[in-house]
Amino acid sequence: xxxxxxxxxxxxxxxxxxxxxxxxxxxxxxxxxxxxxxxxxxxxxxxxxxxxxxxxxxxxxxxxxxxxxxxxxxxxxxxxxxxxxxxxxxxxxxxxxxxxxxxxxxxxxxxxxxxxxxxxxxxxxxxxxxxxxxxxxxxxxxxxxxxxxxxxxxxxxxxxxxxxxxxxxxxxxxxxxxxxxxxxxxxxxxxxxxxxxxxxxxxxxxxxxxxxxxxxxxxxxxxxxxxxxxxxxxxxxxxxxxxxxxxxxxxxxxxxxxxxxxxxxxxxxxxxxxxxxxxxxxxxxxxxxxxxxxxxxxxxxxxxxxxxxxxxxxxxxxxxxxxxxxxxxxxxxxxxxxxxxxxxxxxxxxxxxxxxxxxxx
Length: 361
Hints:
The chain is α/β, with parallel strands linked by helices. The protein is built from 14 helices and ten strands. Strands 1-2-3-5-4-6-7-8-9-10 form a ten-stranded mixed beta sheet, sandwiched between helices.
């Protein structure tokens, strides 16, 4: 049933690896928010994909030392979980009203108001990216910028709709069974890390699979149903005036959707990064590929990685490794251009070098 419209944090606050959980009650049900960092800093709010939470969707990115020095140095992080996706969540009552994607976006507004946040930087993955994009269209003055990973913007294709219906039936009748997890892992990761008959699953896939076992089936089903009923928001993309950085794995099932979205956004405010040999959840599968583009994206806001922490060999951020083209005002956020990840090695140092394109590790 719908909750009171007042946003309040209940007394139940749990510590997660230095972060604190707040349960914010909204007009469309309670929302779990994990807060990391200094609340006096600008806010970065994250939203994960279906059946994931911050642990299974953003841990890989935020556990990178380079990402920690860039993001935690500049932001206070607010990890929102879709309803019932937080760690230890109870099953939502089946009789409760199923929220629409518009109502999920409205929940975010209540979260921002609860924490007294103004304009916020957003980062979302696939379904979460759709919710945040919808929010940006509805509440433009509350958005500093968007970092979207394998985003959605169109209504489901017949293929996606059918796949989601199969997953919904599996959730309803069998719960988080092995076949359902295969569907979800295919949605998240490339074949290279999912493994096969002769190749074992990677550690990140095994960890994600274990975390999926902790999800309440009814909670995942409700979010999946909401996303499967989403409308096409393509027409509103041209009206967005916040800077938008899009990442997509070239092996993601939503690769064409990300290209479509990029084509519809105003090119003055958007950039695309295609990550080679990667699935949808770039934040987990290839988080280092995000570091250089994010650094230059955030430079447009006057945000930098602290100088006392040098660039690692996998993230060549020192000035000697960056081509003059990428140091231009245009590439530092005044005007973003489409870019694609590509590896090139310096013959002297054998380290990746940026030459007009952003390198992957």
